[in-house]
Amino acid sequence: MKTRKLSEGLEVSDLGYGAMSLSHGYGEATDRKDAVKILRQALDCGYTYFDTAEVYGPYINEEIVGEALKPFRDEVVISTKFGISFSEYTHGDIIPDARPEKIRQSVEGSLKRLQTETIDLYFQHRIDPKVEPEVVAEVMGELIKEGKIRHWGVSVAPEEYIRRAHKVTPISAVQDRYSMMARGIEKLFPTLEEFGIGFVAYSPLANGLLSGAYEKATNNKFEAVVDYRSRMPQFTPEAMKKNEELMAFLQKTAEEHRATMSQLSLAWMLGKHSWLTAIPSSRRLERIVENAGGAVVKLSAEEIKAIDEALDKLPKSDIFGVKNN
After folding, report:
1. pTM for this structure?
2. If both were cysteines, with which of 56, 149, 217, 254 could 24 make a disulfide (CB 3.0 to 4.6 Å apart)?
3. Which residues form the NADP-dependent oxidoreductase domain (predicted)?
4. How far apart are CA 177 and CA 204, in angstroms?
């Protein structure tokens, strides 16, 4: 797999590996030894950028990533996140906390769990309405000077927040939901390009839907509580019906490029901008290999434009985090 420059001094593999599903949100956690093996298999497939967060598990995901990648630390880029916890009493509601003292507590914990002296890319997981962006950015600047992080970024943040924070300590990357079924973030791309900020797309396959592997899936096939798909709108029978034209179009277009639906979706995304990457996730080696092929499939600007025009017209169900109706 080749590499691409997200921002000044930050180079990653064309595609990254999202480690979340190993221990959070997609069913029971993977056995620790198996999870370590999967991460090293991803590295063997050419992924050198790995994304995690302290809240995944919580904490367990960072520990697994740290164990798996410690022998290869000089070969990889690791991003992790701070700033949220999940309520145990309201079915997983997000609780933001970006107080400076909490950030410092989080970074020390992440450094220990990741078994590293420096975090390559440190994301604010969600904005905290009680803490101004300038305050968070100032702490990030301090952590960079102290050598505890190399770059910082924000996840799911509005443009004003990004602009204000960037003035204090330059932001290297923004992370947000982006896929063929969730394109709203594209309106932010001109701002990112203006400031030289990279973009990391999470859920690039709409939580797996765009892989085509869930054509007959329904929410009740996923284990409640531990598997978020049990509550995702795109996995209802009604959604499957609504998405039939979209899936047929993607299948046909993928076949024309001798690719799978996953590879087409990822190639479409990577072809948008050179400073953009995605972090698909899977526990299965065959899917990890398949996704890596998305960096090999090349689409011309004209082909991407044609796909965009088709996507604008095709009916799409709501997906987790996005209303398409």
Report:
1. 0.97
2. 56
3. 15-311
4. 7
